[in-house]
Write a structure and sequence with these properties.
Strand order of the largest sheet: 16-15-14-13-12-18-17
Shape: globular
CATH topology of the largest domain: CV3147-like fold
Structural class: alpha+beta
CATH class of the largest domain: Alpha Beta
Oligomer: single chain
Distance between the termini: 38 Å
CATH architecture of the largest domain: 3-Layer(aba) Sandwich
Largest sheet: 7 strands, antiparallel
């Protein structure tokens, strides 16, 4: 077995930048979590990163995340103690300690949640997640696509409330129950999903995504240092495509049922002058329309980047006049299967649209 490697202090900055881009507008701004994690590193903590392939089949893995509408995260900073709370709840429920932790989603601040807990508890983090990006629901995960058991899971809030869901009928019920609790918690909760065996992570995790986020962030940071175009660095790193360059002209959003929903309209600049672009989102960007025609949809990653810095722009931070570039990155292969599209294509979000992709024709023609 290959020994885990230690994630360095410099790589934390890369991870934050890369994860924010992979968040496709959601997953929570990594900024506060990054500050908290760097403070733990300053105190001497270090987090080992282990490959999914190197897990023992019988290992028990904790799947860690926070839940809620991204706009709420602007008002509540990251707290490692709260991240640990549902982990301890789950360990007490199953009667054993975890062997490692992993992110539920590599996108946004949720990429850092298992690192915060691992830094305090001395666990390694698995180089894998269940989305390869950010999505608003557990129904949109690789574990749901694999029909793994959705229970038990633990939820906790900052007011000393704790809920352990011991059983739910399926993944849709799991999400519905969690959302009802989440609303009562004030649209932010800390969670530990159903524990996974090492075998399950090997079979159904999306592997290498922590390393992917670090590499993407490194590309952006190096481009900035070299006074190169960071947006071009993102495209080169992830085999992405630039779809639109312009500025935000209007934003309409609302927090409802624990989600941030809305649309953003953009006016074109440079080569896109005279064109318009509309982005539809539910926490994350789900649909991109150029001059009214659908150009890209979930599960492809629709990312909005600051045109100068290459920094991701979250759905909660969209504002009038921002100069942005809309880019598409290819979806994980699992989500382009018929079963994967049933969980992640627009109809899985209640939208009357088929999957549309700017990438390979074979992928674009796939349907749930």
């Amino acid at each position: 077995m290959r020994a885990p490697r230690t994630v360095t202090l410099e790589e934390l900055d890369f991870l934050g930048t890369g994860a924010w881009i992979l968040g496709t507008g959601g997953g929570g701004d990594p900024y506060h979590g990054l500050l908290a994690l760097k403070a733990l590193y300053d105190e001497g903590a270090r987090v080992p990163l282990i490959r999914a392939a190197d897990l023992d089949d019988g290992a028990m893995i904790g799947v860690v995340s926070q839940m809620g509408a991204p706009v709420v995260n602007l008002e509540r900073t990251a707290d490692p103690a709260m991240t640990i709370k549902p982990v301890r709840m789950m360990e007490a429920h199953v009667g054993r300690r975890f062997d490692a932790l992993m992110p539920s989603e590599i996108g946004g601040g949720n990429a850092l949640q298992p690192f915060l807990a691992a830094a305090k508890l001395g666990y390694p983090v698995v180089d894998a997640d269940t989305m390869g990006r950010a999505f608003p629901s557990v129904f949109h995960t690789s574990f749901a696509v694999g029909d793994l058991t959705p229970h038990p899971y633990a939820l906790a809030d900052i007011r000393d409330n704790e809920v352990m869901v011991t059983r739910c009928a399926d993944w849709l019920w799991s999400e519905q129950i969690a959302r009802k609790i989440l609303v009562e918690f004030g649209s932010r909760a800390f969670s530990c999903k159903a524990p996974r065996t090492g075998r399950e992570v090997k079979d159904w995790g999306i592997h290498g995504t922590v390393t992917q986020a670090i590499g993407l962030g490194r590309a952006v940071h190096l481009a900035r240092r070299g006074h190169a175009d960071p947006v071009a660095a993102v495209l080169a790193s992830e085999r992405g495509r630039a779809l639109f360059r312009g500025k935000i002209a209007d934003v309409a959003r609302r927090a409802t049922e624990g989600h941030l929903r809305g649309v953003a309209d953009c006016e074109g600049l440079d080569a896109d002058r005279g064109h318009r672009y509309r982005l539809e989102f539910q926490n994350e960007f789900l649909v991109g329309r150029r001059d009214g025609a659908v150009e890209v949809t979930t599960p492809d990653l629709i990312c909005v980047l600051d045109s100068v810095s290459g920094e991701a722009v979250g759905t909660e931070r969209l504002r009038y006049g921002q100069r942005i570039t809309v880019v598409a990155l290819p979806a994980p292969a699992l989500f382009l299967t018929a079963k994967g599209l049933a969980h992640t294509a627009p109809r899985a979000f209640g939208l009357d649209l088929d999957f549309v992709s700017p990438f390979a024709p074979a992928a674009a023609e796939a349907r749930p």
